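Practice problem: predict the structure.
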Amino acid sequence: MADFDEILFKDETSEKNGAATENNAPWKILIVDDESDVHSVTTYMIKDLEYMGRNLAFYHAYSGEEAQQILARHPDMAVILLDVVMETDDSGLRLVQFIREELENHTVRIVLRTGQPGKAPAARVIVDYDINDYKEKTELTLEKMMVTIIAALRSYSFITTIETNRKGLRKIIEASSDIFERQSLQKLGDGVLNQLTAILKFKEDLNTNGASGFTATGAEGQSVVLAATGAFQKYVDRPIDEVDSLLIQTALDQARTQPHGFYCQGSRCAWYFKSHTGPENFLYYEIAKELSDDDYDLLELFFANVSLAFDNLFLNKGIEETQKEIIFHIAETMECRSAGTGSHVRRVSEYARLLAIRYGLDEEEADMLKLASTPHDLGKIGMPDSILNKPGPLTPEEYETIKSHVYRGHDLLMHSANPIIQAAARIILLHHERWDGTGYPQGLKGEEIHIHGRIIGVADVFDALSNKRVYHEAWSWEKVFAYFREERGKHFDPKLVDILLENKEEFQDIWARYNSIGLQFP
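Answer:
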């Protein structure tokens, strides 16, 4: 006998489940049988049944083909009560194959019902077909019918909850592989809200089922909303203090005081966690139902895992920041060896990012290029000062020595698995190539040169001409831009030259900013 604690009939609904039916869609039940009396009797027997606060919605098909059409329109069908013999002796079994193989629906629970057990022996059918229960029509009394339906619905509910949780977990896993902090935190915040919804058994879009929430993170007292659903979407990227509700702020304050940072009251939940690396993390969530003790237990366990996810993310962020610092120190050391190149590294990195964005690269790649550009002259660390700081023209032999710096720098970085270091090695090797194929070291031409090398080639020359060097005075802006017009399609990618000329003021602003403040690293 099934456990009937969760089963109610419409005329017996208790107060504790009073609002549940209104806020939850009914379970979809498909009856497939060619006898109309079977449809009528089945519906009459269980029409008033409720399970987990949800009633039943019936769909009727009188042939396998009609059932296929209904199932194609309703992928969220929960239970199918299926006859074996209809238009053909194996119509029901063919329908099972269609559901599992063509629709690839392995979630719906299929109860095979037959009045002719000899046509589909139970032992063979259970082995050969993916069905979940087998009943002879004569044995389905009211009590056994209820047990069958409840068992099928319970199984369906578990399967769909696991699948929804899996989708939320996928987003959290994806966040761990991201390089850049902001995108990673947003994906993690979005994944937390998604999985939280799955745990609470909301399967539709959060904006349509009465659930709203947000996650926030940041330094103490400066947390910013990362991801949000429902009524809180307008607060994304805004300080958490701007969330205008005393109830919400009170809930978050209460969460701070709890041993595990988890606070729930009624339909409102708040979570607080401070990472080992310093940032504070918040979550607030409200739904249109009262949470049970079981819900609280699940959520407390869930947030223990969320705390680990945030901490791991911030630890990874610390590693990335260390890598960036090392790269900048390498670049700063190299720059100090060259006379008259103050702030060159910083200006080139800013020029490179601006060119990348205007060229059409996304923000993530542009930020990576900005960082990867900083050691573009790394190979010069092995150059003699007599050549590196020579005020006059280089001899052919000295020029060959200078040209070797691209291989020196590339060889120092080429074995790293870090994508930023890989990009830096590529830039070192390619930024002296020319669009017309007359550059070095490989004489590449046009788009044979990676876009990173082409961008840094423009940024590096622009900075070299517009600032004083040991071998020349700073050029006037008019002369600098005239040179790029002349070398368009020769030395430089024509599209990048057009971007430079169309955005002169922005490039001049970068020049002015970093010439006035000296060398500064972010």
